[in-house]
Amino acid sequence: MSNKILGRVLIVAGLSVLVMLFAWEVFADTLSVIEVRRNIPLAEKDPVYRDYYINGGSNQGLKNHLVVNVSRKVALKDPSGTQTFGELNVPVAQLRIVQVGEKISVARLYKEIPRDDIAMLEQTGVLIGDLIEMKGSFVDNRRPPALNTPKIESASTNLVDSTPSPPITGAAATAALPTGAPVAPATPVEPAERQAASGSGGAHEVETAN
């Protein structure tokens, strides 16, 4: 009996080791964001960079200027949190690889995915633990646009001259009227025939028969 028990224990231990090795291989091939870092600008004109570190490099097929998709697994649970109804893989954004190592890569934000036609996220932006998907990736060799830096406007440009201007009178006021401004109506001129008729009195009256 002892030999049989020992044999079963060894079989179970061997199967456990195989399962662990298989799981290690599966999770080792899963690319994800493992770190997010942001520089601290020393001046207002300095650009701000946000780098996303990925646990994969050239060995996993990553290369410079490659645009990859980022997704997040969202689990839906009951109010008590004891039962899980399932998981949903929700797209988050697209990242563009800017530097590649053998086992690690650095990426920056390429495009945010709008929430109009897909599920919303309680926490927007790329977070640690988000998954990197190679499916649908492409290479964009264009130079990324320069980051916008805050501009300080001079206070003199915002000043408004509050000195009242003198009123405009006379011909200058007429010339200063804008195009399309209302103009006082002119006195109507009567036709020449009407003026002649009014001046002749009863000359044009019709004689009545006796």
Short structural summary:
With 210 residues, this protein is α+β, with helices and mostly antiparallel strands. It is built from three helices and six strands. A six-stranded antiparallel sheet has the order 1-2-5-4-3-6, with no helix packed on it.
Describe it:
This protein has 210 residues and is of the alpha+beta class. The protein has a domain at 32-139: Thrombin, subunit H (Beta Barrel). Helices cover 20% and strands 27% of the residues. It has three helices and six strands. A six-stranded antiparallel sheet has the order 1-2-5-4-3-6, with no helix packed on it. A hairpin with a 6-residue loop joins strand 3 and strand 4 (84-100). The longest helix is centred in the first third of the chain and has 27 residues, at 2-28. It is extended and about 115 Å long.
- The CATH class of the domain at 32-139, by name, is Mainly Beta
Q: Which range does the strand content fall in?
A: 25-35%
Widest sheet, order of strands: 1-2-5-4-3-6
Shape: extended
Main β-sheet: number of strands, strand sense, barrel status? 6 strands, antiparallel
Q: Residue share in helices?
A: 10-25%
Could you tell me the number of beta strands? 6
Helix-strand sequence: HEEEEEEHH
Distance between the termini: 161 Å
Helix- and strand-based class?
alpha+beta
Instruction: Give me the Rg, rounded.
Output: 42 Å
User: Low-confidence segments, ≥5 residues, pLDDT <50?
Assistant: 19-28, 150-160, 200-210
Q: What is the tally of helical segments?
A: 3
CATH topology type of the domain at 32-139 = Thrombin, subunit H
Mean pLDDT: 76
Task: Just name the CATH architecture of the domain at 32-139.
Answer: Beta Barrel
